[in-house]
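assembly run, all chains below
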Amino acid sequence: MSETITLEVLRYLPETDSEPHFQRYTVPYKDEWVVLDALNHIKDHLDATLSYRWSCHMAVCGSCGMTINNEPKLSCHTFLRDYRGGVIRVEPLDHFPIERDLVIVMDSFMDKLSSVKPYLIPKQDKPLSSGEYLQTPGELNVFHQYTQCINCMLCYAACPQVGLNEDFVGPAALALAHRYNLDSRDGGKAARADVVASNEGIWECTFVGACSQVCPKCVDPAAAIQQTKISASVDWLKDLLTPGAHT
Amino acid sequence: MDVIEIDVAIVGAGGAGLRAAIAVAEADPTLTLALISKVYPMRSHTVAAEGGAAGVIKDNDSLDNHFNDTVSGGDWLCDQDAVELFVNTAPLELLQLEHWGCPWSREANGTVAVRPFGGMKVERTWYAADKTGFHILHTLFQTSLKYPSIRRFDEYYSTDLIVEDGRCTGVVAIEMRSGRMVAFRAKAVVIATGGAGRLFPFTTNGAIKTGDGMAMAYRAGVPLKDMEFMQYHPTGLPGTGILITEGSRGEGGILVNKDGYRYLQDYNLGPPDPWPRKKAMELGPRDRLCQAFWHEQQKGRTIKTPQGDVVHLDIRQLGEKKINERLPMVRELAIAYVGVDPVHEMIPVRPVVHYTMGGIHTDIDTATSLPGLFAAGECACVSINGANRLGSNSLAEIVVFGARAGRGAAAFAKANPKPGAASNAAEAAQARLRELFAREGGPDTVSGLRKAMNDSMESGAGIYRSEDTLLATCGILADLRARYRRLALQDRSNVFNTDLIQTLELGCMLDVAAAMAHSALERKESRGSHQRLEYPKRDDANYLKHSLAAFRGDEPPSIGYRDVVITRSQPAERVYGGAAT
Amino acid sequence: MSRRPYMRKVERSWWLQHPRYILYMIRELTSLFVGLYCALLAVGLVRLSQGHAAWDGFVAAFSGPLGVVFQLLCLVFTTYHSVTWFALTPKAMPLMVKGEPVPGGVIVGAHYVAWAAVSIAVLIGAGI
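ok done. output:
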């Protein structure tokens, strides 16, 4: 009889359930398996009605964020061997409406991401024919870590302010704004400030730091937000002292 | 059924689809556009590509070099007019990505850096650390947010093309969150749905690579071209199939067998220089490297692991600093998924299915034989990759032809009238779905049929094929198709029913697999990634042609042929190793 | 429509659900004591400006057992507050030297050095 492990998975079928409930499944235990492998085993062999998102299985597409034993994690990057001998509780990410089973409604996240104008607004236009914007490795280093976000939303699930204030723009969106603000080619900080430096933007953050703790890509959105607070305050002061000089 | 009328519909929001959408929006912001994808754009499989995108920009390189490398890399099955256009346009498209903010890795002087890649005489692969696909996809997605005319329909699963009076007039899709069907009536449709790696059991491809768009076009009467050419990537992790980029070999990584021997030198790829010599050894083309693995396996010189046979990829000699700077993701993946830190140990790797050279037959402007229908990216076959794709040509391909498809679709939409009154085509799609929901349960499951298909494709249509193995696979696929027709859903709900989606995806895969297996059976030669044990040589006299698979319902596809466009590079011997440079 | 998205409520006890939130709340609570001690110092300044008698009265008021306990609590909590603050400084003020990031430990260490220097200066000034 080979070793097994138990998963306790949140189920919610909106057409028949009035509220979510948990269902237990026993799956084979394999050293090299991740929770996603266990979920696939459930779907393939035990219960085809289980719905969840996944694709790349290598922690780069951001699809498979879930709450695993009370911790926001990517199910493709959470190894069964770290839970051996126990029960693994698998739920959808916190702070989002549950569409079905482990699938959340992520419309609010997509809206917040777009709201910060997360695209290059060049300092100066340059025709393609004149080649690339020059950017030294040092300049790239300044913003590189903030480019690593895979939009997995673990940070939104971890952040208590997201849970308490549904309008809070949130860690990933603010980190992405910071990525562009720091890019030496970009001149769009003022254009983003409306949303970024607003009450629902950086000022909703109280530096809990949970976002950075759970981020699977070490983006450190908390750092991005605190840096933006300093830079926004400096900009505000500059505006106060020399009004109209800065646009 | 709800009907949405738009000028252009794009199915697939990966690199090619997003680039096409931006091209439409820039060509004419007044055109209405629907960007339809079964996943949110950031999840598209472009995100997993690692190594880089090829484009000629350095002074020591030339467009001719890129052209010749690509044509010979494709074993002369590439259409040379398309390759010419591709190599000319690639640098501009990659530059456009840079202007949109893509964080390309740089030289000390601030210019874009390039690295060596397999099968290329001169280094020309632009890279963003070892997450180039991720950065390209996110750059394109974020840039697309600038254009108000791009209307996205995320998590809509497209099931059928609407064809009326010999013209493609839209696409039918299921809104996954509610289960309702929507008919997009469009003047022009672009398919950019990616390849079909999930036909095979070991693949770098994510769950979504199920060939849906290929199947839709195929069923609508558009032939699938060169389907027998399926690329295995030489270095995937055992078990998961996770991709370990060719860039690790471009930076100087080596492949050794169980005796610690750089075995590639035994297969006309030597000499085994200690520094990466272009087009030699570990920088040879992917098909040759995978074939070498197969031979080593036959000789018993591969290393046995619980997840199958492997060889070792050694990048220790690069040193920790270089690995952290150029190959940080390779290090993370090796540590997480096989418990190996490549700074100190060798990574176990094996060939895994990676890229579909074949696809929807298009011309050089991405137009298909069905007026109003365009295709670009991995799902299409122009063909610039021929019988074997060079690494880093695909990321360049998706932006070159994605842009072309967008412009082509925009021009078609402006030049053509709206489709006529709604016909029965969309209703037929809905009726098929109702029939599926109504079926009674039987002994088969979607996962059972899928596994049987996977196993059969690997054993019959793998790196080396023969008449016996291919015939067996064709037979099994026919049987699976019959069983699929009786397959019932295990989940009949409406909200985010992934059992339904997997069942529909399986149908697409079975159609594409049949095209693949039959095309392989008919090509009685070895060329590029299609290797026949009983026909080990290339046969230009009979087979310097593209195969064209035509859908015939439950009957096997009919396989026709079409000449390859040869302009200035006459077929010659593919030369790698010391003799090549 | 068959959709019925279900929103799980955030309970009032949300911060008890995970150690990281409990630690966060403790950190936030310590700012209360930082604030209170600042108030105490402000009052002390005012009393100082009002002459010897007022100052002596102020010192006496806080020399009793309750006063001492309060000040000890403030010492502990402001220390905790400072330690957690210092730990977070590299995030808020990343420094680059010649294109390479300065290690976080150096930035944190610099804060401790500054703290020590100021503390020593104050103690010397106070005649200790």
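Chain C touches chain A at residues 2-8, 10, 14-15, 17-18, 20-21, 24, 28, 88, 90-94, 96, 98-101 (CB under 8 Å).

Residues 19-49 of chain C form the longest helix (31 residues).

not gonna interpret more than that til we talk
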